[in-house]
Design goal:
The complex is a heteropentamer, with 1 copy of chain A (306 residues), 1 copy of chain B (271 residues), 1 copy of chain C (266 residues) and 2 copies of chain D (256 residues).
Chain A: E1 20-25, H1 32-39, H2 42-45, E2 49-54, H3 58-67, E3 72-76, H4 77-85, E4 91-99, E5 105-109, E6 125-128, H5 134-145, E7 154-157, H6 163-168, E8 175-178, H7 181-189, E9 192-195, E10 206-213, H8 214-219, H9 221-239, H10 242-252, H11 257-262, E11 267-268, H12 274-286
Parallel strand pairs in A: 1-2, 1-3, 6-7
Antiparallel strand pairs in A: 3-10, 4-10, 4-11, 5-8, 5-9
Helix pairs in contact in A: 1-9, 1-10
Chain B: H1 14-37, H2 49-60, H3 63-96, H4 98-111, H5 116-127, H6 131-155, H7 159-167, H8 172-210, H9 216-225, H10 231-259, H11 261-266
Chain C: H1 2-30, H2 38-49, H3 61-94, H4 96-110, H5 118-125, H6 129-153, H7 157-165, H8 170-204, H9 214-223, H10 227-255, H11 257-262
Helix pairs in contact in C: 2-10, 3-4, 3-6, 3-8, 3-9, 5-6, 6-8, 7-8, 8-9, 8-10, 9-10
Classes of the chains: A alpha/beta (306), B mainly alpha (271), C mainly alpha (266), D alpha/beta (256).
The complex binds adenosine-5'-triphosphate (2 copies) and magnesium ion (2 copies).
One magnesium ion binds at residues 45-46, 82, 160 of chain E.
Membrane topology (chain B): Multi-pass membrane protein
Domain ABC transmembrane type-1 (chain B): 69-252
Transmembrane segments (chain B): 73-97, 185-204, 216-232, 238-255
């Protein structure tokens, strides 16, 4: 591909243990980096040929990873750490992926709802995509910071497609939305933002990253490094350039070009930072979702990109 | 259906019967239209039948959708075929050798209620996630109706008929194949019809929950994660699945009436 | 007879034991976290559900909170679905008019994958029990319906004629001639529906807004990778399925005693 | 009572295997008459019976019972089917089988049970009431079917070879039973039999049918003196003569 | 050929409704003999037949066929069931029904078809070969069952009221057919009938059974001169005498 990027040092394809990779991704904005990296020829530059495989939810990719059908997957840290803790999977984080940006997640109420402030959420029912996942983890911290008792919130699991009907039908009091639903709800329903679950203590909360198994990493250290570089380079490219993202979104999500131009993107990580990721593991431990502490740094790969 | 029904109504002419069928379908569509148009259900989530139908027609022209449909069809057909090939002999065995039935029953009945959602990851771990994954789950679900109908069908075989053949010195296997099997075949066929529906449901459901690549279920899943969800697409997909179910059932009924003509004619269901 | 019964019982236990031992050995050898050995699963089941106080029959709060609501949903769904299946099946099997009007629509509905209709169920029934029951019934009604219709259509013609000749009323013919004849086939459908109701119960507990139940526990365990807990749920379902089936067979043996005797099955 | 007018029946009409079972059959039976029908195997006797009972719609002509054209099964009719064992309900005890049709009568449970018991006694099955049909021998099943029809007290009774499976002694008893019941309850009876002696012994009239397609080839009034008796009646010269006559008709040598 | 030794059978043994169908029955049939069995309805004749055919295991005593105790169905045996209509397979044409048992013989398809056609002809059903059993009248179905047994050429043939549903003329033809076939193919035949004349006419020996539980109350050798003939044999004084004798035995007046 043609590129206007400041070219990072290019490695020769030689020396890579494996050049053709299959990576499971999700049909969501968070997965954009890998598509941008493909689109912009960043993998090619590292001597890699990456084939993304869209799965419907991250847990499905885990058997594929274990069975070796894929080399790496894009998954959220809460799931990954839980799997690691239960020894279902020895996780190795290849590269950080996305972090919550302001307004990319939102607790929203319908225009005529009595809920006006975060305090009004107390005792209310809120949807999450999956129970005991990052949505709850982040919101708990933010609610605490807003003097709302997190234990009083009733979470119900509602699949993506059914959030709107449940919300309109009054089965949930406030909706926990991500993009592009935030934009859509604001524009078409006049929904009001009550709270940003990724603010205050949970600001820039890391959501998902690219992971493989420890064994895979041990066998393919150079490939892993090359992969990480490409992802980081993509993230850097995306930082100030909405168009490269907007261009790929319609190819793997259900977001059309028009919407892609207006939605709020998460942050894509241009480098790996064990400190912010450790927060996730610590909060999970605090919520007793982990049986013992995880030293996140030991699961991460050294950053080799510039 | 039958001349000897409770009311002994003479069979209606094909024209009348087809118009009744059409009336039934139209009434059903009208009901959906009504629920949607009157706002009984939010039309955003349950679009009117006319809109669904319109969308269904345009979908058919879409090569991508046809590819989805073909993939699902393949998984369905393979799964159903394997299920039938396994379940009928197994049903004959369990239905005719009580000891085997008794011995395996605890295992069979233990395995049976395990839902495929729980199996999805486990099957994926064991045999991978390709076509074989869907097929395995379809087989697992479609097996039972055929198996049970075979076992129960065998019990309905007239003992005098079985004894007739036995008295001519035929062994148990010959009696099974020449009397029990043909005699219970119509009911086994009903089991296959049931299984065809179950297999269709399982194919699409598995795709919705854990499909990759292609399949009607994958199509439905993606329509569902759009914002706002493309309900007309989802229901148009559902429409084609349902219609396929109707077609398969009709084919099987036609087959049934042809091959088991003795069974129907005897009951006054001429034709 | 009696001794034969004991022998098959012993045989069954032996088969079961061999399989469990094989399972234990295989899972230990494989050492995969996804396939914990049965001993681990049983331990987990005990800890989760059956370590309660004697006052609650050793059931823990979790057991009361998960197993009972699930069984309740299942029972209600099964009863409703079975009833609907029998009624519709008889109507379809007996009246060519009803058959013509409804068959197409029913065959259409029968092929529809319920997961694709969750949104529709949601807007029609709302969260919770109503939607779950609708979901269960919608799924299990078909085997009962089709088999009952088949049974009603295959009544010995001479039986129908006898009823007709003696001018039995419609209800009498239905209840005393058609229903008993169709009963053996209906039971095949009911037995299918019974285990199906257990399966669909689990599915229904994945529906939006569910907060308890075996299915809920099972999926929560999976998404948090608590695999022994997931397997505990699977095994519990298996055990429940087995027990329900045994109860079903006892009922069937009573209700269909005439059939088994007349068909020289025993 | 019963008028059969130019009756025809074709099975599988329109198909290449169409079979003309009955053609242009005329017959009338008076109130209270006991008509015996004899004819070669497969000629169409059962078909005729089913037309009278409204179980099949004849393809031509019509049947009138008490002046009304038969479209559905007429009221107060009972049939003893040739295939008696299949006409019993296997899920009911023998007593219940017999009592079932009585639901159409204004009888309470007790009365129905009594009537069933009485009917079973009259056919010599008092001991079998609580048994199920499959526990009975062929002849016993046939007697249950007869008891069921008798208990019903129909005004028109159709019997298709009702005594085919019982021993000689029982057969005679049943013949006399039918004669007795007919006398008591003013029944009209149409009885199909292959036993020529029987047809003359029980019948007021014997109708002989031809080979398929069936039509009437002989219609004999049986005018035997006094109440019938198994010994004396059968020795009566008229009986012997009539029997020979029917025999000749059946064998295809019409006398007239 | 056939030895029945102290045979007993109890249905539902151990239950309160146990029924003693047969008790201490002894009987032997020589090779090539045609034995007729008569006895009251429900006495246990069909039960006896089923024991010989190995379809039920008697609860006491034993049956030997050609010296071997019957545990399973003996070879070269054919049965015409009393419940003939249920013994035919509804999914097969009449010809196929008749041809099916011939698969046990070393015959190719053509030979089987020929044998079936021939057997059907011999019972007067040449026209019905392609029909299905439900398209036949009762008597025709019964003849199909007979044809099936005849075509099989068994060495031991068991017939349970095989001519109950056919007209007098056909019945006589079938009686003669059985006699002819027996002569040609050296069959041993056990035939149950309720027709006393028939038992004497076709039988080499007539055995009379008692009321349930069945045992032998009479065993008469039928010694009629020359080949049997429907007219002359039935007029023969020995025939008349034997017939009366059997009748008395059946009615419970043993002569000896
Ligand atoms: N359902 C049917 N389809 C076609 N043909 C039939 C059907 N039922 C009867 N037949 C034919 O009609 C003719 C008359 O049959 P029917 O049963 O009336 O005879 P039948 O006089 O009662 O004989 P039988 O004395 O043997 O009982 C027979 O040749 C038979 O083959
Ligand atoms: N399966 C059974 N269970 C219980 N009792 C039975 C069973 N079969 C037959 N019986 C009884 O055994 C007795 C003899 O029956 P069987 O059929 O041998 O009589 P049969 O001599 O053939 O009579 P028929 O001349 O009426 O056919 C009858 O009283 C009958 O009630
Ligand atoms: Mg007849
Ligand atoms: Mg008998």
């Amino acid at each position: 591909g043609t590129t206007s990027v400041a070219a990072p040092p290019t490695n020769a394809a030689g020396g890579l243990e494996k050049t053709q990779l299959k990576v499971a991704t999700l049909p969501a904005i968070d997965s954009a980096a890998i598509y941008v990296a493909i689109d912009q020829g960043l993998f090619e530059r590292e001597g890699l040929e990456v084939t993304p495989q869209v799965v419907q939810a991250a847990p499905e990719a885990i058997p594929m990873l274990i069975k070796g059908e894929i080399d790496a997957m894009f998954g959220n840290y809460v799931s990954m750490f839980a799997a690691h803790d239960k020894q279902a999977l020895k996780v190795r984080i290849l590269a950080e992926g996305s972090r919550a940006a302001p307004d990319s997640l939102s607790i929203m109420a319908l225009p005529d709802s009595p809920i006006k402030t975060p305090k009004d959420l107390e005792g209310k029912t809120i949807n999450v995509n999956v129970l005991r996942n990052f949505q709850e983890l982040a919101l708990t911290q933010v609610l605490k910071a807003n003097n709302v008792d997190p234990a009083s919130i009733k979470y119900v699991q509602v699949t993506f497609q059914n959030i709107m009907p449940s919300w309109k039908g009054g089965q949930i009091d406030a909706a926990y939305l991500g993009e592009p639903q935030v934009t859509a709800a604001t524009a078409t329903m006049g929904a009001r933002k009550i709270l940003d679950p990724a603010s205050g203590p949970a600001a820039e909360f890391p959501i998902s990253g690219y992971v493989s198994t420890q064994e895979w990493y041990d066998e393919h250290p150079k490939t892993a490094a090359a992969f990480q570089r490409a992802i980081h380079n993509a993230a850097k490219l995306m930082e100030n350039n909405r168009e490269v993202v907007a261009k790929v979104l319609p190819t793997f999500t259900q977001i059309d070009a028009a919407t892609a131009a207006t939605v709020t993107f998460p942050y894509f990580s241009g480098n790996d930072n064990p400190v912010r990721l450790q927060r996730v593991a610590d909060w999970m431990l605090e919520a007793k979702w982990l049986s013992k502490a995880i030293d996140v740094k030991s699961l991460m790969s050294p950053t080799t990109s510039g | 259906m039958s001349a000897q029904t409770l009311t002994s109504i003479r069979p209606a002419s094909p024209a009348i019967r087809w118009s009744r069928r059409a009336a039934g379908a139209v009434a059903f569509a009208a009901l959906i239209e009504l629920i949607s148009r009157t706002g009984l259900a939010d039309p955003e989530f349950l679009p009117p039948a006319t809109e669904i139908a319109g969308r269904a027609v345009t979908l058919l022209a879409d090569p991508a959708f046809r590819a989805h449909a073909l993939t699902s069809l393949l998984a369905w057909a393979i799964g159903l075929a394997i299920a039938a090939l396994v379940a009928v002999p197994l049903g004959l065995l369990l239905g005719s050798v009580p000891l085997v039935d008794a011995a395996t029953r605890s295992v069979v009945e233990f395995l049976r209620p395990i839902p495929s959602v729980a199996l999805i990851p486990l099957v994926a771990l064991v045999i991978g996630t390709g076509l074989q994954h869907r097929v395995a789950l379809v087989v697992y679900a479609a097996l039972w109706p055929i198996l049970y109908n075979t076992m129960y069908g065998l019990r309905g075989v007239d003992p005098v008929a079985k004894e007739s053949l036995r008295s001519y010195g035929f062994g148990p296997l010959a009696v099974l194949m020449r009397v029990s099997l043909p005699s219970s075949a119509p009911f086994i066929m009903t089991g296959v019809r049931l299984a065809a529906g179950v297999a269709l449901i399982l194919t699409v459901s598995t795709e919705i929950v854990a499909g990759r690549g292609e399949g009607i279920g994958v199509f439905i899943f993606f329509a569902g994660i759009a914002v706002p969800a493309r309900m007309a697409d989802i229901l148009a997909g559902v429409f084609w699945v349902g219609l396929f179910g109707v077609a398969v059932n009709a084919l099987m009924v036609a087959f049934d009436r042809r091959v088991f003509r003795w069974h129907h004619v005897q009951r006054g269901e001429e034709g | 007879m009696r001794r034969g019964g004991l022998r098959t019982a012993a045989f069954r236990v032996a088969v079961l034991l061999v399989l469990v031992v094989a399972w234990e050995a295989a899972t230990r050898a494989a050492g995969s976290a996804f396939f914990p050995p049965p001993s681990t699963i049983v331990e987990r089941m005990h800890a989760m559900w059956f370590s309660g106080s004697p006052a609650t029959l050793f059931l823990t709060d979790a057991a009361v909170g998960d197993i009972l609501p699930s069984l309740g949903r299942m029972a209600l769904g099964f009863a409703g679905g079975a009833l609907a299946g029998v009624v519709l099946g008889l109507a379809l099997g007996l009246s060519s008019r009803v058959y013509d009007y409804l068959d197409g629509v029913l065959q259409f509905l029968r092929a529809i994958p319920p997961p694709a209709l969750v949104t529709v169920f949601l807007v029609l029934f709302g969260f919770g029990l109503r939607m779950q029951l609708a979901f269960i019934m919608f799924s299990i009604v078909w085997p009962v319906l089709l088999n009952t219709a088949d049974g009603a259509r295959s009544v010995e013609p001479l039986h129908l004629q006898t009823g007709q000749v003696f001018r039995l009323s419609r209800t009498e013919r239905l209840l005393r001639v058609v229903l008993p004849s169709a009963l053996p086939k209906m039971f095949a459908g009911l037995r299918l529906a019974l285990s199906l109701s257990l399966i669909v119960m689990v599915f229904s507990e994945l529906l939006p807004g569910t907060t308890n139940g075996i299915g809920f526990q099972l999926t929560t365990a999976y998404v948090t990778f608590d695999l022994p807990a997931m397997w505990a749920g699977i095994v519990l379902l298996g055990v429940l399925g087995y027990l329900l089936n045994e109860v079903f067979l006892v009922v069937e043996r009573r209700v269909l005693a005439w059939h088994h005797a007349a068909q020289r099955l025993t | 009572m019963l008028e059969i007018d130019n009756l025809s029946h074709v099975y599988g009409g329109g198909t290449p295997n169409a079979h003309h079972a009955i053609e242009g059959l005329n017959l009338s039976v008076a109130e209270g008459e006991l008509l015996c029908i004899v004819g070669p195997s497969g000629c169409g006797k059962s078909t005729l019976l089913r037309s009278i009972a409204g179980l099949i719609t004849p393809t031509g002509g019509q049947v009138k019972v008490e002046g009304n054209v038969v479209k559905q099964t007429p009221d107060n009719l009972a049939v003893v089917f040739q295939d008696y064992s299949r006409s019993l309900f296997p899920w009911m005890s023998v007593a219940d089988n017999v009592a079932l049709p009585l639901r159409r009568r204004n009888m309470d449970k007790k009365q129905r049970e009594d009537a069933a018991r009485e009917a079973l006694e009259s056919v010599g099955l008092e001991g079998a009431a609580r048994k199920y049909p499959f526990q009975l021998s062929g002849g016993m099943q046939q007697r249950v079917a007869i008891a069921r029809a008798l208990a019903y007290r129909p005004s028109l009774m159709l019997m298709d070879e009702p005594f085919g499976s019982v021993d000689a002694q029982t057969r005679e008893d049943l013949e006399d039973l039918v004669l007795k019941v007919r006398g008591h309850h003013q029944m009209t009876i149409v009885l199909i039999t292959h036993d020529i002696d029987e047809s003359v012994y029980v019948g007021d009239r014997v109708v002989v049918l031809s080979k398929a397609p069936a039509h009437v080839v002989g219609d004999l009034k049986v005018d035997l003196p006094g109440p019938r008796d198994q010994i004396t009646t059968r020795e009566h010269p008229d009986f012997v003569h009539l029997r020979a006559e029917v025999g000749r008709l059946v064998r295809g040598h019409a006398t007239v």
